[in-house]
Amino acid sequence: MKRPRYFLFFSLLFFTFTSTFAQLIVDEQQVEELSEEVNLTTPYHTTLTFFFNLEKNHFQPDLAAKTLDIRGVEGDPEDLAIKLKQVLEGKGVIIRTSEIPNDPVYVDSTAGGEPRFYFDAAKVPSIYLEKKGKQWKFSAFSVSRIERLHDETYPFGTDQLLNILPKIGTDEYLGLQTWQLAGLFLLIILTFLAHLVFTFLVDRGLIYLLKRLGYGYIGENYLLPIAKITSFYLIVVLLSLFVRVLQLPAEIWSWVIIVFNTLKPFLITVIFYKIVDVVAAYFQHLATKTESTLDDQLVPLIRKTLKALVILVGTLFILRDGLNFDIIPFLTGLSIGGVAIALAAQDTIKNFFGSVMIFIDKPFQVGDWVTSGDIDGTVEEVGFRSTRIRTFRNSVMYVPNGKIADSVVDNHGLRKYRRFFTTLTITYDTPPELIEKFVEGLREIVLSHPDTRKDYYNIFFNNLSAYSQDIMFYIFFEVPAWPDELKARHEVLIQIVKLANSLGVRFAFPTQTLHMESFPEKKGMIPEYPEALAYEAKLNRFLKEELGRKAD
C-alpha cells in the first residue's frame, strides 16, 4: 500500500509544472482562442466553452450549461453541467484539445458517419457531442445519463463530500487547494485505520475462532494469507471511492486511476492464487484417504494447472482493466497462433491427453511394476507429459504418456497372486514309491507355507524327458511386492532341497551314462533303495522335524 501513496506524492509535485483545466489539457494560446464566452460551432469550441466556464477563476455554470442539449431532460441545467464535469473527473477521462476536431462538419466514421464526437468510448461511451443544426452540444442522451453516471462514480453518499470539503478552503499550495490537501491527509489516516481494523479482525478474530474450532493450522497457513490480501483489496476499493472526491488535477488523477485499476485485478489474482493452495490441500486430504497412489500425483498437477490458469486470466484482466489494453486482437491472434502451435506440438498435445487418460482410467499406480514392450520397471511419477519408470537396473526411463496410452500395459502390481512355476527333474533310477512320497511332501510344503495360495496349486509327476523324470511344481504366492516373492521362493526351495535330502531323492541333470556289465566283486553305479515302508518313515520324519518346527 506504500507504493500508490509515494506515487501520488510525486505526481503532486509533477502537477506544479503542468497547465490544466481539470481533466482538460490545453495550452495557454488555445485559451486565448476562446474569443466568445459561448462558442458551439465545432466540437473543439464546445468542449473549451464547457470546461473554461466551470473553472474556479471564471466560474459561470450558466454558460457551461448552454453546451447541454436539455430537450426532454428534467433537472437544473447548471447542476447537470457541474455533475457532468465531476463524472468526467471521477472516471479519469483525459481530454486533450489537440485531439478534438476543429471542424464544423466533422463526422465519426466509426459511428456510421454520424456527426458525433466521443471523448472516451471505453470509459464513458454514453457521453458524446452531437451536432444539432449548426451547433455542437452534449447529446440529449448523454444529458439524460448524467445523474446515473454521477451516482455510479460517487456511490454510498461520497458525492456529498464534494459539497462539504471545498468549504475548508481554496487557497493553493503545491498546485492543490487547501481542501484537497486536507482530504488527502484524511485519506491517508483512513488508510492506516482501515489497515489496523482489518488486521485486528483477521489476526485476532478469524484465527482465534478457527483455533477454537480446531482448525488453527488451516487458518494460519492457508486462510490467513488470503484474508490479508483480501484486506488490502478492500482498502484499495475504499481508496478508489474516496480519492475521486479530491478532484485531483488531470495529469495526477490519470495516473492514480491507472494504479487503482491495476491493483484491483492484481490483488484479486493473488487472492485466487492463494485459494488454489486451499483447494489443493483439501484434495490432498481426500487423496490420503484413498488406496490409489495415483491421486497423490494428480493433486500437484491440478494445483500447478490451476495456478497457471489464474495467472493467465489475471494478466488479461490487468491488461484490460488496469492498463486499458485492447485484448481482443491479442486473443484473436492467440487463437490463430494456437492452431499453428497445435500443429507444431502434436506430440506434446498427444502426451497431455495421454496423461488425462491415465488419470481417468488408472491403469497403474505409483509403485506398480509394469511391463510394456521395452518398458519394464516400477512407476515412480506420473506427469502431464511423461511417466517416470525406475528399471530393475536402477536407471530411470521417461516414457511419453501418449505412447503409454496407445500401448498394452501389463500391470504386475495389480496381481493378487504371484505365480511360481518350475520343473523338478529327478533321476530315472528313482522308484515310483519314492516319487509318490516326494510329491506328497512337496504338497505339504506348499500347504504349510504362510504365503502360498492353498486353494489352487498343481504338483504332479507329468513328464519323462530325455534324461530325467519331471515333476511339475506350479504354485502361487500371495505377497504384495517382488522382494516378498523372492523371499517366499527362497523358503520354499530350501524346503524342497531338504525334503529331497531326507528322502534320498537325486536331482537329474543332462548327462551321458555308459553302462558296463556288473561283476560279482564290483557294485554297480545304481544306488540301492530301501523298501517302500522306509520312504513313509522318512517323509514323516521330515514333516515332523522341518515343517513341524517351522509351524511352531
UniProtKB/TrEMBL annotation:
Q: Name one Pfam family in it.
A: MS_channel_2nd
Recorded superkingdom? Bacteria
Q: How does it sit in the membrane?
A: Multi-pass membrane protein
**What is the predominant subcellular site recorded for this chain?**
membrane
TM segment ranges: 179-202, 222-246, 252-280, 325-345
Q: Which InterPro entries match?
A: LSM_dom_sf, MS_channel_C, MscS_beta-dom_sf, MscS_channel_2nd, MscS_channel_C_sf, MscS_channel_TM-2, YnaI-like
- Cleaved signal peptide residues: 1-22
The segment(s) forming the Mechanosensitive ion channel MscS C-terminal domain are: 423-501
Q: Which UniProt keywords apply?
A: Cell membrane, Membrane, Signal, Transmembrane, Transmembrane helix
Coiled coil stretches, renumbered:
none
Which Gene3D superfamilies does this entry report, sorted A to Z? 1.10.287.1260, 2.30.30.60, 3.30.70.100
In this protein, which residues make up the domain named Mechanosensitive ion channel MscS?
Answer: 347-412
Q: Where in the cell is it found?
A: Cell membrane
Q: Which family does it belong to?
A: Belongs to the MscS (TC 1.A.23) family.
Can you say what this protein is called?
MscS family membrane protein
Q: Which organism is it from?
A: Algoriphagus taiwanensis
